Amino acid sequence: MSAVELVSDALAGVTALDPVLHFMDFLAADSALEAAARIDRIPLVERRGLPLAGVPFLAKAGTTVASPVVGRLVDAGAVLLGTSTRPDSAAVCQAWGWNGCEHTANPWCTDLSSGGSSAGAAAAVAAGLVPIATGGDSAGSLWIPASFCGVTGLKGSYGRIPRAAGRSLAQLTVVGVIGADFDDTVLATSIASGPDPCDPTALPHWPPPVAAGDRFTVGFSADLGYAQPDAAVAGLVAGRLEELAAAGMIRLREVAVRLANLGAAWLPLAALERGQLTDSTAVTRAHGVRRDNDRALARVFGDVDVLVTPTTPKTAFPHGEHEANLSAGDLCWAFNLSGHPAVTVPAGLLHGLPVGLQAVAAPFRDDLAVELARLAAVSLPDPPIHWPAPRS
Questions:
Q1: What does the domain layout of the chain look like in residue ranges?
Q2: Which of 25, 18, 151, 150 has the alpha carbon at shortest distance from 98?
Q3: Could you confirm whether 84 is annotated as catalytic?
Q4: Residue in 84, 114, 117, 157 annotated catalytic
Q5: pTM, to two decimals
Q6: What average pLDDT is seen over the chain?
Protein backbone atom coordinates (compact mmCIF):
# COMPACT_ATOMS: atom_id res chain seq x y z
CA MET A 1 0.00 0.00 0.00
CA SER A 2 1.13 3.55 -0.62
CA ALA A 3 1.49 6.00 2.25
CA VAL A 4 -1.63 7.83 1.04
CA GLU A 5 -3.59 4.57 1.06
CA LEU A 6 -2.39 3.71 4.57
CA VAL A 7 -3.22 7.13 5.94
CA SER A 8 -6.56 7.32 4.12
CA ASP A 9 -7.55 3.97 5.62
CA ALA A 10 -6.59 5.17 9.11
CA LEU A 11 -8.60 8.37 8.64
CA ALA A 12 -11.62 6.35 7.50
CA GLY A 13 -11.27 4.30 10.67
CA VAL A 14 -11.14 7.44 12.78
CA THR A 15 -14.34 8.71 11.12
CA ALA A 16 -16.07 5.41 11.82
CA LEU A 17 -14.87 4.64 15.35
CA ASP A 18 -14.07 7.91 17.10
CA PRO A 19 -17.80 8.57 17.64
CA VAL A 20 -17.89 5.23 19.50
CA LEU A 21 -14.54 5.23 21.36
CA HIS A 22 -13.86 8.99 21.72
CA PHE A 23 -10.06 8.63 21.43
CA MET A 24 -9.23 11.74 19.38
CA ASP A 25 -8.18 15.03 20.93
CA PHE A 26 -7.35 16.74 17.62
CA LEU A 27 -7.41 15.42 14.05
CA ALA A 28 -5.08 16.86 11.40
CA ALA A 29 -6.41 15.00 8.36
CA ASP A 30 -5.27 17.45 5.69
CA SER A 31 -1.68 17.73 6.92
CA ALA A 32 -1.50 13.93 7.36
CA LEU A 33 -2.55 13.34 3.74
CA GLU A 34 -0.08 15.97 2.54
CA ALA A 35 2.74 14.28 4.51
CA ALA A 36 1.76 10.89 3.08
CA ALA A 37 1.81 12.29 -0.46
CA ARG A 38 5.31 13.70 0.12
CA ILE A 39 6.51 10.27 1.23
CA ASP A 40 5.04 8.62 -1.87
CA ARG A 41 7.03 11.07 -4.01
CA ILE A 42 10.33 9.97 -2.45
CA PRO A 43 12.17 7.47 -4.69
CA LEU A 44 11.99 3.94 -3.31
CA VAL A 45 15.75 3.65 -2.89
CA GLU A 46 15.71 6.73 -0.63
CA ARG A 47 12.59 5.60 1.20
CA ARG A 48 14.51 2.61 2.55
CA GLY A 49 16.22 5.04 4.90
CA LEU A 50 12.84 5.80 6.49
CA PRO A 51 11.99 2.76 8.64
CA LEU A 52 8.46 4.04 9.38
CA ALA A 53 7.67 5.42 5.92
CA GLY A 54 3.92 6.03 5.67
CA VAL A 55 3.02 4.53 9.06
CA PRO A 56 0.19 6.55 10.69
CA PHE A 57 0.46 7.32 14.40
CA LEU A 58 -1.02 9.48 17.16
CA ALA A 59 0.73 11.71 19.68
CA LYS A 60 -0.57 12.24 23.18
CA ALA A 61 -2.52 15.46 23.71
CA GLY A 62 -0.22 18.34 24.55
CA THR A 63 2.72 17.16 22.45
CA THR A 64 3.83 18.35 19.02
CA VAL A 65 6.60 17.60 16.51
CA ALA A 66 8.82 19.77 18.71
CA SER A 67 8.76 16.91 21.23
CA PRO A 68 11.68 14.55 20.50
CA VAL A 69 9.54 11.39 20.52
CA VAL A 70 7.09 12.83 17.98
CA GLY A 71 9.69 14.62 15.86
CA ARG A 72 11.92 11.55 15.58
CA LEU A 73 9.05 9.30 14.50
CA VAL A 74 8.11 11.88 11.85
CA ASP A 75 11.75 12.06 10.72
CA ALA A 76 11.64 8.27 10.32
CA GLY A 77 8.71 8.65 7.91
CA ALA A 78 5.75 8.13 10.25
CA VAL A 79 2.68 10.27 9.55
CA LEU A 80 1.11 12.16 12.45
CA LEU A 81 -2.71 11.96 12.28
CA GLY A 82 -3.25 14.18 15.32
CA THR A 83 -3.39 13.89 19.09
CA SER A 84 -5.09 11.38 21.36
CA THR A 85 -7.12 11.97 24.50
CA ARG A 86 -6.00 12.19 28.08
CA PRO A 87 -8.01 12.83 31.29
CA ASP A 88 -8.75 16.08 33.05
CA SER A 89 -5.40 16.97 34.61
CA ALA A 90 -7.13 18.08 37.82
CA ALA A 91 -8.31 14.53 38.59
CA VAL A 92 -6.41 12.60 41.27
CA CYS A 93 -6.69 9.35 39.32
CA GLN A 94 -5.53 9.70 35.71
CA ALA A 95 -6.53 6.21 34.52
CA TRP A 96 -9.22 7.40 32.06
CA GLY A 97 -9.66 9.65 29.06
CA TRP A 98 -11.87 12.59 28.06
CA ASN A 99 -12.38 14.36 24.74
CA GLY A 100 -14.21 17.32 26.27
CA CYS A 101 -17.64 15.70 25.97
CA GLU A 102 -17.29 11.93 26.40
CA HIS A 103 -15.14 9.38 28.21
CA THR A 104 -12.65 7.49 26.07
CA ALA A 105 -14.05 3.97 25.78
CA ASN A 106 -12.32 0.61 25.88
CA PRO A 107 -12.56 -1.35 22.58
CA TRP A 108 -13.18 -4.55 24.56
CA CYS A 109 -16.24 -3.07 26.27
CA THR A 110 -17.36 0.50 25.66
CA ASP A 111 -18.82 0.80 29.18
CA LEU A 112 -15.30 0.53 30.62
CA SER A 113 -12.32 2.85 30.87
CA SER A 114 -9.45 2.51 28.42
CA GLY A 115 -7.07 3.44 31.25
CA GLY A 116 -4.83 6.47 31.18
CA SER A 117 -3.50 8.95 31.17
CA SER A 118 -2.45 7.85 27.66
CA ALA A 119 -6.08 6.85 27.15
CA GLY A 120 -6.78 7.58 23.51
CA ALA A 121 -3.40 6.16 22.50
CA ALA A 122 -4.20 2.69 23.83
CA ALA A 123 -7.81 2.70 22.61
CA ALA A 124 -6.79 3.68 19.06
CA VAL A 125 -3.98 1.13 18.91
CA ALA A 126 -6.13 -1.69 20.30
CA ALA A 127 -8.91 -0.84 17.85
CA GLY A 128 -6.51 -1.19 14.89
CA LEU A 129 -6.60 2.46 13.83
CA VAL A 130 -2.87 3.10 14.22
CA PRO A 131 -0.06 0.62 14.92
CA ILE A 132 1.78 2.91 17.36
CA ALA A 133 1.07 5.94 19.52
CA THR A 134 3.13 8.01 21.92
CA GLY A 135 2.38 8.56 25.58
CA GLY A 136 3.72 10.04 28.78
CA ASP A 137 3.98 8.38 32.18
CA SER A 138 4.62 9.35 35.78
CA ALA A 139 2.53 6.66 37.56
CA GLY A 140 1.67 3.98 35.03
CA SER A 141 0.12 6.20 32.35
CA LEU A 142 1.59 4.01 29.60
CA TRP A 143 1.21 0.57 31.19
CA ILE A 144 -2.29 0.95 32.63
CA PRO A 145 -4.03 1.80 29.33
CA ALA A 146 -1.93 -0.72 27.41
CA SER A 147 -2.90 -3.40 29.94
CA PHE A 148 -6.60 -2.47 29.99
CA CYS A 149 -6.74 -2.50 26.17
CA GLY A 150 -4.62 -5.61 25.57
CA VAL A 151 -1.63 -4.08 23.77
CA THR A 152 2.08 -3.43 24.45
CA GLY A 153 3.38 -0.50 26.48
CA LEU A 154 7.11 0.15 26.87
CA LYS A 155 8.63 2.46 29.47
CA GLY A 156 12.40 2.43 29.18
CA SER A 157 14.89 3.24 31.91
CA TYR A 158 14.57 6.83 33.07
CA GLY A 159 15.97 9.01 30.27
CA ARG A 160 15.58 6.39 27.54
CA ILE A 161 13.55 8.83 25.40
CA PRO A 162 14.32 12.55 25.85
CA ARG A 163 11.60 14.94 26.98
CA ALA A 164 10.90 18.30 25.38
CA ALA A 165 10.69 19.83 28.86
CA GLY A 166 14.06 18.37 29.78
CA ARG A 167 15.01 17.10 33.22
CA SER A 168 11.95 16.80 35.45
CA LEU A 169 12.10 18.09 39.01
CA ALA A 170 11.42 14.73 40.68
CA GLN A 171 12.50 12.43 37.82
CA LEU A 172 9.16 10.63 37.69
CA THR A 173 7.86 11.50 34.24
CA VAL A 174 8.99 9.60 31.16
CA VAL A 175 7.96 9.32 27.52
CA GLY A 176 7.15 6.02 25.84
CA VAL A 177 5.34 4.11 23.12
CA ILE A 178 2.17 2.01 23.00
CA GLY A 179 1.92 -0.43 20.11
CA ALA A 180 -0.19 -3.23 18.66
CA ASP A 181 2.81 -5.28 17.54
CA PHE A 182 5.56 -5.97 20.06
CA ASP A 183 8.48 -5.51 17.68
CA ASP A 184 6.98 -2.32 16.24
CA THR A 185 6.80 -0.91 19.77
CA VAL A 186 10.45 -1.75 20.39
CA LEU A 187 11.51 -0.28 17.03
CA ALA A 188 9.64 2.98 17.64
CA THR A 189 11.22 3.25 21.10
CA SER A 190 14.66 2.73 19.60
CA ILE A 191 14.05 5.39 16.94
CA ALA A 192 12.89 7.88 19.58
CA SER A 193 15.82 7.19 21.93
CA GLY A 194 19.16 8.97 22.19
CA PRO A 195 20.63 12.28 23.35
CA ASP A 196 18.88 15.57 22.71
CA PRO A 197 20.03 19.10 23.61
CA CYS A 198 16.74 19.78 25.38
CA ASP A 199 17.23 16.94 27.85
CA PRO A 200 20.62 16.46 29.56
CA THR A 201 19.37 13.28 31.28
CA ALA A 202 18.70 11.45 28.00
CA LEU A 203 20.54 8.14 27.66
CA PRO A 204 22.56 7.04 24.59
CA HIS A 205 20.75 5.66 21.56
CA TRP A 206 19.19 2.27 22.32
CA PRO A 207 19.32 -0.26 19.47
CA PRO A 208 16.60 -2.95 19.37
CA PRO A 209 17.97 -5.82 21.48
CA VAL A 210 19.07 -9.07 19.89
CA ALA A 211 17.81 -12.20 21.61
CA ALA A 212 20.63 -13.69 23.70
CA GLY A 213 19.28 -17.24 23.57
CA ASP A 214 19.94 -17.82 27.28
CA ARG A 215 17.21 -18.78 29.72
CA PHE A 216 16.13 -15.98 32.02
CA THR A 217 15.89 -16.32 35.76
CA VAL A 218 12.53 -14.81 36.59
CA GLY A 219 10.94 -13.87 39.88
CA PHE A 220 7.21 -13.30 40.39
CA SER A 221 5.54 -10.95 42.84
CA ALA A 222 1.79 -10.59 42.91
CA ASP A 223 1.81 -7.50 45.13
CA LEU A 224 5.34 -6.01 45.58
CA GLY A 225 4.63 -6.23 49.30
CA TYR A 226 1.84 -3.65 49.47
CA ALA A 227 -0.70 -3.94 46.61
CA GLN A 228 -3.92 -5.98 46.72
CA PRO A 229 -4.45 -7.55 43.29
CA ASP A 230 -7.42 -9.72 42.41
CA ALA A 231 -6.49 -13.35 42.90
CA ALA A 232 -7.71 -14.24 39.39
CA VAL A 233 -5.55 -11.53 37.78
CA ALA A 234 -2.45 -12.58 39.72
CA GLY A 235 -3.18 -16.24 39.01
CA LEU A 236 -3.42 -15.70 35.26
CA VAL A 237 -0.03 -13.94 35.16
CA ALA A 238 1.62 -16.52 37.42
CA GLY A 239 0.16 -19.28 35.25
CA ARG A 240 1.71 -17.77 32.14
CA LEU A 241 5.15 -17.87 33.79
CA GLU A 242 4.60 -21.47 34.87
CA GLU A 243 3.85 -22.36 31.24
CA LEU A 244 7.13 -20.79 30.14
CA ALA A 245 9.03 -22.58 32.90
CA ALA A 246 7.45 -25.94 32.02
CA ALA A 247 8.53 -25.40 28.40
CA GLY A 248 12.12 -24.80 29.55
CA MET A 249 12.10 -21.19 28.35
CA ILE A 250 12.73 -19.55 31.74
CA ARG A 251 13.86 -20.48 35.24
CA LEU A 252 11.39 -19.48 37.93
CA ARG A 253 12.86 -18.50 41.29
CA GLU A 254 11.02 -17.54 44.44
CA VAL A 255 11.70 -13.96 45.50
CA ALA A 256 10.51 -11.94 48.45
CA VAL A 257 9.70 -8.41 47.28
CA ARG A 258 8.80 -6.05 50.10
CA LEU A 259 8.69 -2.48 48.86
CA ALA A 260 7.39 0.40 50.97
CA ASN A 261 3.87 1.57 50.13
CA LEU A 262 4.42 4.45 47.76
CA GLY A 263 1.43 6.69 48.41
CA ALA A 264 3.19 8.91 50.91
CA ALA A 265 6.27 9.12 48.67
CA TRP A 266 4.77 9.52 45.22
CA LEU A 267 2.28 12.30 46.02
CA PRO A 268 4.80 14.92 47.26
CA LEU A 269 7.19 14.06 44.44
CA ALA A 270 4.36 14.38 41.91
CA ALA A 271 3.54 17.81 43.35
CA LEU A 272 7.21 18.73 43.00
CA GLU A 273 7.15 17.40 39.42
CA ARG A 274 4.29 19.78 38.57
CA GLY A 275 6.21 22.72 40.03
CA GLN A 276 3.75 23.15 42.87
CA LEU A 277 4.94 24.28 46.27
CA THR A 278 5.08 21.39 48.69
CA ASP A 279 6.37 20.62 52.16
CA SER A 280 10.13 20.10 51.93
CA THR A 281 9.96 17.65 54.84
CA ALA A 282 7.53 15.46 52.87
CA VAL A 283 9.86 15.57 49.86
CA THR A 284 12.80 14.55 52.04
CA ARG A 285 10.81 11.61 53.42
CA ALA A 286 9.78 10.65 49.90
CA HIS A 287 13.40 10.49 48.80
CA GLY A 288 14.08 8.28 51.81
CA VAL A 289 11.37 5.84 50.63
CA ARG A 290 12.86 5.97 47.15
CA ARG A 291 16.31 5.05 48.47
CA ASP A 292 14.90 2.21 50.59
CA ASN A 293 13.02 0.78 47.62
CA ASP A 294 16.07 1.15 45.38
CA ARG A 295 18.09 -0.96 47.82
CA ALA A 296 15.32 -3.57 48.04
CA LEU A 297 15.09 -3.79 44.25
CA ALA A 298 18.87 -4.06 43.93
CA ARG A 299 18.71 -7.15 46.15
CA VAL A 300 15.93 -8.61 43.98
CA PHE A 301 17.90 -8.10 40.78
CA GLY A 302 20.90 -9.68 42.42
CA ASP A 303 18.90 -12.94 42.36
CA VAL A 304 16.83 -12.69 39.15
CA ASP A 305 17.17 -11.22 35.67
CA VAL A 306 13.56 -10.06 35.41
CA LEU A 307 10.82 -9.41 37.96
CA VAL A 308 7.24 -10.04 36.79
CA THR A 309 4.03 -8.74 38.31
CA PRO A 310 0.49 -8.20 37.07
CA THR A 311 0.46 -4.80 35.36
CA THR A 312 -2.70 -3.69 37.13
CA PRO A 313 -4.41 -5.18 40.19
CA LYS A 314 -7.71 -5.47 38.30
CA THR A 315 -9.06 -5.40 34.78
CA ALA A 316 -10.67 -2.26 33.34
CA PHE A 317 -13.24 -0.48 35.53
CA PRO A 318 -16.48 1.34 34.53
CA HIS A 319 -16.54 4.97 33.35
CA GLY A 320 -16.82 7.53 36.11
CA GLU A 321 -15.26 5.27 38.73
CA HIS A 322 -11.68 6.42 38.25
CA GLU A 323 -11.35 8.20 41.60
CA ALA A 324 -12.40 4.98 43.36
CA ASN A 325 -9.75 3.10 41.36
CA LEU A 326 -6.58 4.98 42.23
CA SER A 327 -5.11 1.55 42.97
CA ALA A 328 -4.92 0.91 39.19
CA GLY A 329 -1.37 2.25 39.34
CA ASP A 330 -0.25 0.38 42.46
CA LEU A 331 2.00 -2.08 40.60
CA CYS A 332 3.36 0.50 38.13
CA TRP A 333 4.29 3.62 40.03
CA ALA A 334 7.01 1.85 42.03
CA PHE A 335 9.03 1.80 38.82
CA ASN A 336 8.38 5.46 38.02
CA LEU A 337 9.81 6.19 41.45
CA SER A 338 12.83 3.94 40.84
CA GLY A 339 13.36 4.55 37.11
CA HIS A 340 13.57 0.84 36.21
CA PRO A 341 12.60 -0.24 32.68
CA ALA A 342 9.22 -2.00 32.45
CA VAL A 343 7.13 -3.50 29.68
CA THR A 344 3.51 -4.62 29.72
CA VAL A 345 2.17 -7.25 27.33
CA PRO A 346 -1.09 -9.20 27.23
CA ALA A 347 -1.08 -12.34 29.39
CA GLY A 348 -4.57 -13.44 28.35
CA LEU A 349 -8.23 -12.65 28.85
CA LEU A 350 -10.21 -12.82 32.09
CA HIS A 351 -14.00 -12.75 31.66
CA GLY A 352 -13.42 -11.30 28.20
CA LEU A 353 -11.10 -8.48 29.33
CA PRO A 354 -7.31 -8.23 28.84
CA VAL A 355 -4.88 -8.85 31.70
CA GLY A 356 -1.42 -7.34 31.47
CA LEU A 357 1.89 -8.94 32.48
CA GLN A 358 4.56 -6.48 33.62
CA ALA A 359 8.24 -7.35 33.07
CA VAL A 360 10.77 -5.23 34.99
CA ALA A 361 14.57 -5.36 34.82
CA ALA A 362 17.49 -3.64 36.51
CA PRO A 363 18.28 -0.06 35.45
CA PHE A 364 19.55 0.17 31.86
CA ARG A 365 18.78 -3.53 31.22
CA ASP A 366 15.81 -2.67 29.04
CA ASP A 367 16.93 -5.55 26.81
CA LEU A 368 16.14 -8.12 29.51
CA ALA A 369 12.68 -6.71 30.23
CA VAL A 370 11.95 -6.62 26.50
CA GLU A 371 13.10 -10.17 25.80
CA LEU A 372 11.12 -11.69 28.69
CA ALA A 373 8.05 -9.71 27.65
CA ARG A 374 8.42 -11.00 24.09
CA LEU A 375 8.46 -14.60 25.39
CA ALA A 376 5.49 -14.06 27.69
CA ALA A 377 3.19 -12.09 25.38
CA VAL A 378 -0.04 -13.85 24.43
CA SER A 379 -1.69 -13.13 21.08
CA LEU A 380 -5.24 -11.89 21.67
CA PRO A 381 -8.12 -11.82 19.19
CA ASP A 382 -9.27 -8.45 17.89
CA PRO A 383 -11.54 -6.65 20.37
CA PRO A 384 -15.24 -6.26 19.50
CA ILE A 385 -14.68 -2.65 18.40
CA HIS A 386 -12.02 -2.80 15.70
CA TRP A 387 -11.04 -1.34 12.32
CA PRO A 388 -11.74 -3.05 10.08
CA ALA A 389 -14.50 -4.95 11.87
CA PRO A 390 -13.45 -8.42 13.10
CA ARG A 391 -14.50 -11.21 10.78
CA SER A 392 -17.34 -13.36 12.10
A1: 3-192, 216-376
A2: 25
A3: no
A4: 117
A5: 0.96
A6: 94
